[in-house]
């Protein structure tokens, strides 16, 4: 189906010369096609890589060395912060020129994120400091992640350019998607070819997020919530279902502090609970450092976890096949009384989308194989969320044990 061109909100961003206008309109149209077809394009991207690194048909890639045989306590996963090497692939390449429209006669946008800023800016779009995944090791009942610093727009310049390139190659003028079943698709992806091994983490900046399946456990059963990510609200995966909370692993404040408590995955998850479940303002880096021991809801979340009323488990690490964003996949199991008390003010929507606890036919999301299978087979799901559900189903006994 053809998608009609819709002018950007900031029409003044379009220059007067005809070639630049046509270039930018074509870029906007292809980005609209990309966003409308992310679920299908992710499957196409997944098929470019061996079966051995795929998590089913979720669109999520996870090599054997990043997988876990069983879920492990998040507290057994150590993280190290090191000075990262300069990436060889940044998006400032001749191979990305067709992915960057003209901004003036004869001059292309110099980065993908600048084109997004002017022509297709989502509401949440800031160049925050983030953590970059450099290595992952698992041994026994624990593991270690090696991280460095990067910026959010570093991911946009590589990841969204990769996604845009695939949309150009796989979607024809009528809006049909080439399945990528033959090897000829690779010949149309010169930028992706610069990263022949997506798990070679010194090649490019791989931003790390944390995706959490939140389970409410009671005598009546176990249920979970999902987030319908808002189109136009988020930079990636708009319109798709995701586990919640899901957030980029990053410092809460840019103010330097000794031995910063922000370099902690559980603290990052608690901030996302505060924002996504309770609708509290995002800790976007311009505020004071958080006092996790005394501020709510962090104090209550931490106390409940220490008391064993919240169990937080890790399922492994992997990445979205379409745009190479990494996720630590986790599960948090709440005792019902703790969930109901801490999230007494649970919101219906937040800055990233709409919260849902029921399917299309009004049924609850029960934590069982039938519900998860139905979601994976009938819904457009963000790859990290789909992989999290798939692995949680696989490890259900250890998660609830």
Describe the 3D structure.
The structure is a single chain. With 401 residues, the chain is an alpha+beta fold. The strands form 4 sheets. Strands 1, 2, 8, 9, 12, 13 and 14 form a 7-stranded mixed sheet that branches. Strands 11-10-16-15 form a 4-stranded antiparallel sheet. Helix 1 packs across helix 4 and helix 9 packs antiparallel against helix 10.
Q: What brief labels describe this structure?
A:
16 strands; 401 residues; globular; alpha+beta; seven-stranded mixed β-sheet; four-stranded antiparallel β-sheet
List the helices and strands and how they pair.
Blueprint: H1 18-36, H2 38-46, E1 60-61, E2 67-73, E3 77-81, E4 102-104, E5 107-108, H3 112-119, E6 129-139, E7 142-151, H4 152-170, H5 190-193, E8 208-218, E9 221-224, E10 226-229, E11 241-243, E12 246-248, H6 265-276, H7 298-306, E13 310-320, E14 326-335, H8 336-342, E15 349-350, E16 353-356, H9 369-378, H10 383-394, H11 396-400
Parallel strand pairs: 3-7, 8-14
Antiparallel strand pairs: 1-13, 2-13, 4-5, 6-7, 8-9, 8-12, 10-11, 10-16, 13-14, 15-16
Helix pairs in contact: 1-4, 9-10
Largest sheet properties: 7 strands, mixed
DSSP summary, beta strand count: 16
Terminal-residue CA separation? 48 Å
Order of helices and strands: HHEEEEEHEEHHEEEEEHHEEHEEHHH
Strand-residue proportion: 15-25%
Helix fraction, binned, reads 25-40%
Q: What coarse outline follows from CA principal-axis ratios?
A: globular
* Number of helical stretches of at least 4 residues: 11
Structural class comes to alpha+beta
Radius of gyration from CA coordinates: 21 Å
Mean pLDDT: 89
Low-pLDDT stretches are 1-5
């Amino acid at each position: 189906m053809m998608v009609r061109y819709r002018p950007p909100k900031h029409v003044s961003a379009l220059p007067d010369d005809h070639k630049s206008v046509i270039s930018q309109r074509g870029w906007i149209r292809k980005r609209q096609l990309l966003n409308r077809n992310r679920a299908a394009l992710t499957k196409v991207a997944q098929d470019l890589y061996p079966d051995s690194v795929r998590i089913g048909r979720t669109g999520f890639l996870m090599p054997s060395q990043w997988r876990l045989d069983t879920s492990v306590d998040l507290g057994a996963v150590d993280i190290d912060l090191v000075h990262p090497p300069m990436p060889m692939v940044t998006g400032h390449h001749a191979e990305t020129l067709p992915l960057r429209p003209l901004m003036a006669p004869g001059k292309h946008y110099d980065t993908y994120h600048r084109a997004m800023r002017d022509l297709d800016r989502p509401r949440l779009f800031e160049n925050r400091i983030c953590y970059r995944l450099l290595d992952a090791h698992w041994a026994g009942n624990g593991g270690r992640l090696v991280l460095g610093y990067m910026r959010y727009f570093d991911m946009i310049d590589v990841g969204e350019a990769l996604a845009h390139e695939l949309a150009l190659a796989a979607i024809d003028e009528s809006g049909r998607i080439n399945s990528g079943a033959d090897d000829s698709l690779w010949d149309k992806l010169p930028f992706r070819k610069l990263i022949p091994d997506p798990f070679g983490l010194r090649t490019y900046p791989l931003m790390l997020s944390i995706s959490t399946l939140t389970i409410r456990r009671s005598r009546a059963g176990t249920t979970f919530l999902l987030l319908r990510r808002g189109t136009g609200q988020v930079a990636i995966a708009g319109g798709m279902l995701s586990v919640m909370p899901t957030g980029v692993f990053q410092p809460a404040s840019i103010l330097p502090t000794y031995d910063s408590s922000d370099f902690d995955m559980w603290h990052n998850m608690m901030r996302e609970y505060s924002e996504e479940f309770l609708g509290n303002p995002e800790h976007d880096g311009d505020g004071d450092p958080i006092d996790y021991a005394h501020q709510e809801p962090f104090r209550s979340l931490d106390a409940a976890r220490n008391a064993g009323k919240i169990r937080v488990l890790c399922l492994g690490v992997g990445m979205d096949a379409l745009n190479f964003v990494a996720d630590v996949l986790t599960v948090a199991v709440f005792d019902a009384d703790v969930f109901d008390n801490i999230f007494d003010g649970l919101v219906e929507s937040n800055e990233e989308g709409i919260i849902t606890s029921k399917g299309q036919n009004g049924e609850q999301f029960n934590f069982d194989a039938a519900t998860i299978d139905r979601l994976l087979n009938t819904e457009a799901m963000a790859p990290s969320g789909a992989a999290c559900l798939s692995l949680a189903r696989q490890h259900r006994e250890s998660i609830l044990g």
